[in-house]
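Objective 1b of the project was to move from sequence-level analysis to a structural picture of ligand recognition. The entry below was assembled by the postdoctoral researcher (A.K.) and checked by the PI before modelling. It contains the amino acid sequence of the target and the SMILES of the bound compound, copper (II) ion.
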Amino acid sequence: MGDGHAGHAADTLHDGHANFAGGATVDHHANGFDPHALLRDFDWGRTRRLASGRVVREWELYAVDKEIEVAPGIAFAAWTYNGRIPGPTLRCREGELLRIRFVNGSEHPHTIHFHGIHPAAMDGVPGLGAGQIEPGQETVYEFDALPAGLHLYHCHVRPLAEHIAKGLYGAFIVDPADEREEADELVLVMNGFDTNFDRANELYAVNTIPFAYMNEPIHVRRDDLVRVYLVNMLEYDLVNSFHLHGNLFHYFPTGTSRTASEFTDTVMLCQGQRGILEWRFAHPGRFMFHAHQSEFTELGWQGFFEVSA
Ligand SMILES: [Cu+2]
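Corresponding predicted holo structure:
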């Protein structure tokens, strides 16, 4: 849990909406990524077809140490995949052959550990296969895109909590062979930052920047199917949650079944848990979404959907 000393980071503006004191925002351009662009940024990599007709899909990921402004005036010495947190949202189709070239440009050893079904040597943990990748070294992870669903990837070098909390994680989507219904799709990776290295978070967010979707709501349209790929990567706190205002959503844990497990407005996730949420807004206007742990909400994990008629 946050230690309570970071409360000064958040304030309440005259309109009653929580934000940083004075409504200041971070410099997304200097960070090199914008939480609004990350929302709908699906990285399909490059593909080619083998003689057998099978599709090979390839990406290049690199680890790089980078200072990121996680709150106005607060620089965080992050470790990233491809210079952003979360790393690229890797997206593919069930049954394809995936190849991920990983180049370690960081000052520290790292790996990429994927969730999903793959050989032990491709698991991205120290002591198996290529093991941990030292600074300046590289490797290729290769496995089948299985099973269809929403997964994730992250570094698996010890101390694990630090390697994850520093920013080395991302979403990994395997589309089912029989595609999902057309929808307005969004990626929300729940995370936080331990800015004073006390193994507790001072800031909470979805897609890294606290209050980003309060300052500028996520625009969606009434009656459109909204599909959220929700991943919890929060370190140091046992659980995280997602709560939607003015609506309920169908929840598909890990996205592996096409039958929703629940019709609800709140789900709780441990680190590494993820799920797909689907709903349609029946009414135009602004609807909040946030963690239902009030402490997380006040320290940044809240946003708005702006529903147009
Ligand atoms: Cu690492």
